[in-house]
Amino acid sequence: MSSLQKKTDVILIGAGVMSATLGSLLKELAPEWEIKVFEKLASPGEESSNEWNNAGTGHAALCELNYTSEKPDGTIDISKAVQINEQFQLSRQFWAHLIQTGVLHNPQQFIKPIPHMSLVLGESNVSFLKKRFKALTQNPLFQGMEYADEPAKLKEWIPLIMNGRTSSEPIAATKIDSGTDVNFGALTRMMFDYLKDQGVEVHYKHSIKDIKRTPDGSWNVKVHNLDNGRVENHVARFVFIGAGGGSLPLLQKTGIPESRQIGGFPVSGVFMVCKNPDVVEQHHAKVYGKAKVGAPPMSVPHLDTRYIDNKKALLFGPFAGFSPKFLKTGSNMDLIGSVKPNNLMTMLAAGMKEMALTRYLVQQVMLTSEQRMEELREFIPTAKSEDWELVVAGQRVQVIKDTPTGKGTLQFGTEVVSAADGSVAALLGASPGASTAVHVMLEVLRRCFPQELPKWEPKIKEIIPSYGLSLSEHPDLFRQIFSSTSEVLGLNSEDHVTNGVETSPDVVTRSI
Ligand SMILES: Cc1cc2nc3c(=O)[nH]c(=O)nc-3n(C[C@H](O)[C@H](O)[C@H](O)COP(=O)(O)OP(=O)(O)OC[C@H]3O[C@@H](n4cnc5c(N)ncnc54)[C@H](O)[C@@H]3O)c2cc1C
Questions:
Q1: Is pLDDT larger for residue 462 or for residue 269?
Q2: How far is the CA of 246 from the centre of ligand 1 (A)?
Q3: 125 Cα to the center of ligand 1, angstroms
Q4: What's the rounded mean pLDDT across residues 150-159?
């Protein structure tokens, strides 16, 4: 049985951090608009945005080596790092605004300070890191970063990583104390609580089956109510497809020309988790290493202090893997079902080009637990198997599209795809991901609401003072914004980090 519901202004598909951010922005800018949310699971933030399904790094390019590349002349290109950092500052400003206006209550429930470090081994990597450090610290956004290559200093910073290290190979690290650990699951849940309070209709256990244009240019969204089995039809003048890995199949259903020649390639992730308090207490940082040859950038190994369920743990990984599912809760038919006549050539071209990635993923899938331990021991030489267990992370669906560099090019960033008339937009890809949700959702507003934007801009600037400005070119404004957001988000003192946070042996893990 199907029923037709009355037309609404906005439909958000998926209750992850992206829909939460867009919904919260729209509630500020157009409070009178009616918004409906449909989520196929029973609660918000259960897929990639869940705290166990991502690494919780507040990506600000403080430690991720893949955002700074060495140019042929040997100098370091920091432009991507500056861009990511500026995007993260937008998120900090929006979150601080939500705290100040009482939308969110306790910043410690979703963001905590943690040093961000990069660690390299070998002469050429050490030379790269030193040059990167010099280039970054000339920019106001990266002030406070330190460099060390003396074992005594490194032992002070990362005792767990240095203890038992016998190799004489050169080693170096950078450290910056203004890094963050973000619980995107908690943030998503809190934003959805607020949206519900604001009268947004949030429907859980409602799965979107189809999206079709109506004669007046709106969108008819066919929804399967998983509780009673009924099919409902909801009409909206704007639809945001924030279905994470599930966005590509839904975008394809819209039939908009912009959805053609786009494919998706799922990469799964596995972390190793340690909950032994004796080990956990010896480490206090997010330490990012260098990706292995052939590894995609999101597979950079890192050893992180995490705060989940108000408990402290260490997570190492992610190990990449292959699963044809587009969502952790998806179907084995997702990948094959996404191959359409209009993207077949794009997908085939990508298959031919990405042999190194395929080899890498096959090799990762075949790893035994002892081989995973060996990779961990490159970080923690004294690591014991009994202290570590596996936890399955979320699925990332990397975008494949035709670009000026060739057919079927694998993209590692996040992409907004929208209809020419701005009536529908989808978010594809997952990197840098949740950290830059505010930047990405501002991009959705820019593309889809050009008529309203001039009217909205004064309010956006009030909420996000650096909107439209490059903070690296406005160092005084950066310092002012950084200091005020640090204060509001409780990032100035580390006292609260250990306050009430246990290093507990009963950290809940999900087994594979
Ligand atoms: C291993 C891993 C590590 C990561 N690490 C980081 C990190 O350290 N820092 C960072 O910033 N980002 C990180 N990310 C990326 C980040 O998790 C994602 O970018 C972000 O969570 C995506 O949010 P979303 O709202 O788009 O998707 P999701 O959180 O996946 O939400 C999408 C929602 O849509 C629902 N849905 C799907 N299909 C349908 C349908 N047909 N009908 C109704 N509902 C539907 C899903 O159930 C889900 O709840 C990581 C991701 C992974 C996988």
A1: 462
A2: 9
A3: 32
A4: 97
Spatial distance between the Cα atoms of 273 and 317, rounded to a whole number of angstroms: 9
Cα angle value 492/494/500 (rounded, 5°): 130
Q: Is the CB of 76 within 6 Å of ligand 1?
A: no
Domains of the chain: 3-497 (3.50.50.60)
Respond yes or no on whether the N-terminal peptide bond of residue 432 is cis (omega within 30° of 0): yes
Residue linked to tokens 């897929």? 47
Q: How many angstroms is it from 60 CA to the middle of ligand 1?
A: 19
- CB-ligand 1 contact for 327 (6 Å cutoff): yes
Global pTM value = 0.93
Which residue pairs from 329-338 have beta carbons closer than 8 angstroms and sit at least 24 positions apart in sequence?
329/40, 329/41, 329/46, 329/47, 330/245, 330/246, 330/395, 334/245, 334/249, 334/266, 335/264, 335/265, 335/266, 337/249, 338/248, 338/249, 338/252, 338/263, 338/264
- Please give the average per-residue pLDDT across 232-254, as a whole number: 97
User: pLDDT band at residue 369, thresholds of 50, 70 and 90?
Assistant: confident
43, 46, 54, 271, best to mutate for ligand 1 pocket (most atoms within 8 Å of CB) = 54
Can you give the pLDDT at residue 356?
77
Asked if residue 249 has its Cβ within 6 Å of ligand 1, the reply is: no
**Pocket flag, ligand 1, residue 280 (CB < 6 Å):** no
Reported confidence tier of residue 410, pLDDT bands at 50, 70, 90: confident
Across residues 99-109, what is the average pLDDT? 94
